Every structure is written in structure tokens, then in C-alpha cells.
TrEMBL record:
Pathway participation: Cofactor biosynthesis; tetrahydrofolate biosynthesis; 5,6,7,8-tetrahydrofolate from 7,8-dihydrofolate: step 1/1
Enzyme Commission number(s) of this protein: 1.5.1.3
Lineage, top ranks: Eukaryota, Fungi, Dikarya, Ascomycota, Pezizomycotina
Compositional bias (Low complexity): 1-16
Name of this protein: Dihydrofolate reductase
TM segment ranges: none
Record flagged with keyword tRNA processing: no
Family, as annotated: Belongs to the dihydrofolate reductase family.
GO biological process: dihydrofolate metabolic process; folic acid metabolic process; one-carbon metabolic process; tetrahydrofolate biosynthetic process
Alphabetized InterPro entries for the sequence: DHFR, DHFR-like_dom_sf, DHFR_CS, DHFR_dom
Amino acid sequence: METPPGTTLSTPSPTELQDRDPVAAEAEKIDMLSTNASKGLRPIYLVVATTPCTMKSSNGTTKSTLGIGKDGSLPWPMIKADMNYFKEVTEKGTATDPHSTISNSAVNSVIMGRKTYISIPQKFRPLARRKNIVITRSGVGQVVDQILDDLKEQKQQAQQWASKKYGEKWLEVLSNQQSDLTMLELKKLRLAQSDIGIETKPTGSLITIEKIPESAIAVVASPQASVDEANESGIFCIGGSEIYKSFLQDEQMRPRLRILQTEIERTDGSDGYECDTFWPEDLENQANNWHEAEKSEVVSWTGIQLPQKELDWHYDEKVGVRLRVKGWKQKGA
Ligand SMILES: NC(=O)c1ccc[n+]([C@@H]2O[C@H](COP(=O)([O-])OP(=O)(O)OC[C@H]3O[C@@H](n4cnc5c(N)ncnc54)[C@H](OP(=O)(O)O)[C@@H]3O)[C@@H](O)[C@H]2O)c1
């Protein structure tokens, strides 16, 4: 009987791989993972903003690298175009992705490490209109307490705003004047009236409620659990360094990864911003198998226009920076 032709989907055993030329075996492994990745598994987007940086090692040598953070925050001042792109992509992105199974009403997921969650200003966290998935090794209870504090603080501020604007009877405003309210007023009033609480999932991951308007939160104990939790939506890993590293080093996830990198450079000729947290992988190094995607392809991934549009860079004269978004995918993916 004739042996059926091999396919890239049949998994070679470890001994089979060992007996072959190691380069060919590695290429076949990558091809196999990539093929599996394109078989319906949604891409996972790593969204990062980087600045050129020099890193000093303990033995005194220096190395050029990409900085992403400083003192638990971003190394650069607020850059509107960067913030807008991040918000648009994570809220509305992936709608035109051919691999996407997302319905228009589905909410995207943003996956982040506990330190990145804390780095978001309190009034903006959890990020609205997205499912926030926070990864922690040690402090599930603490993170949940922190999230509850954030929500209570936001609710209190919304209540203060409502009673100042509408007086003692602010609670009646929502039902009486709904059609006259702007979107922002509606949002604040809903927040002021929201019910904050917690639900625990039997699987061990803790889910904080959906009872604040337009967002949801999960606190999970591993990067893999975070992807399982992001099951109905576009998946965006938003850092920081430790979490990017976990995703990049995970062999199952790696072929599914696409990187949306915003490069940020100063325009006054001075060195980049000082950093203490760094992007963990050299994207230009061939051994890491990254391929820079065409601009049009990057736009098609998310359906969102790049900040630099058709130009090479977008300039922010006020802050004194220029920026551009680049997209990366694994070769063969
Ligand atoms: N430029 C950018 O685009 C960008 C994006 C995001 C963040 N940042 C910056 O990056 C910095 C934060 O990055 P970071 O690397 O210090 O922290 P991080 O990755 O945001 O969070 C680290 C924390 O995540 C949890 N964690 C990490 N790996 C885990 C694993 N494998 N399993 C379970 N939990 C895990 C641990 O939480 P516990 O300690 O609770 O166990 C750990 O302390 C800040 O300066 C921030 O502003 C920059």
C-alpha cells in the first residue's frame, strides 16, 4: 500500500526531528506551528511603544536596545497620537481581520501584567470598553482589592459630579432626561449608579463584575490563562516587559503573535528617554524569525489607520518627538 504524502500538519516525533538536519527540523517545526496558527486560531497582538536606549550592564559594557518604561511609568511625556492609536486599536481593532471571528458587538481583551495595570492612571483603569485581564503570580486578592478601590473611586467621583450638576435629585435624571443627555453625561451617570461587586469563577480565575458600564475584568495567574480568558474577542497583550517576554517565549503562542510597535524618537537630536524597563527581543535579528509587514498589511490587521498615514513619520512638534507604527509577524505565519 502506498504511503500517504506527509503533510505539515502531521507532527514529527522528537526522534524523527533529532535524526534530521537540525536547521531543516527547526524550519519544519516553525512551519508546523505557523500552519496550526493560521488554522483558525486568532492572532495575539503585542502592542508596544519603544524608544532607542542604551542599556548599561553590571560589568560596565553598554548595549543599544529599546526602552519601554521608567519608574513604573512611560519614559516619555503624553503623546496624543500614540495614546489615540493605542485606544483605537485596542477598542475597535481587528474588525477587518480575515482570521477574526469577532462579532461587531464583541469586546476586545487587553492582557497586562500587574505592574502595567498599576501604571495606568487611576481614573483610566480599568480601561473602558475593553475586557481587562490582569496577570499576577502572587497577589490575586491584592489585585482584586486594588481594582475594587479603583472602581469605587471612579464611582464616587461620578457621584460628586452628578450631585454638583443636577443637585440632590441626580438619581432621577437618567430616567427623566435620557434623550437630552450627551454620551459623556450618560456614561458618568451610569457609573455613578453602578453596582460594584465580585464574582469568583470555579476554575480559580477571579472575575470582577460586569457591573460597571462597558468593561469587564479578569485576574488570572498565568499568561496562558489570560489567553483562555480572552475567548470571545480581539486579543491584545499590552505589556509590560515581563509579560511580553512570557508571550514571546511560549512556543504555542509564538506563531500567533503579531507585534504593533510604535517607534518614538526625539527630534531635537538629543539621546532618547531614560529607561529602566526594556523590550525583551531583537526584532531585526534573523534568528528570531520576525518579518516586518507592509504598511497596508498592518492596516488590514486592525482596520485602523497608522498615525504616520502615508508618510514615514508622524511629528508631534509640541512634545518634540516623531513616531511611526511598524507591524511584525513570524516568517511563514
Ligand atoms: N512602552 C510601552 O508600550 C509599555 C507598555 C506596558 C508597560 N510599560 C511600562 O513597563 C513597566 C512595567 O513592566 P514590568 O515588566 O515591570 O511589569 P509587568 O510585566 O507589567 O508586570 C509584572 C508582574 O506581572 C506578573 N507576572 C509576570 N509574569 C508572570 C507570569 N509568568 N505568571 C504570572 N504572573 C506574572 C507579576 O505580578 P505579581 O508581582 O503581582 O505576582 C509581575 O510582578 C512600567 O514602567 C510601564 O509603564 C510600557
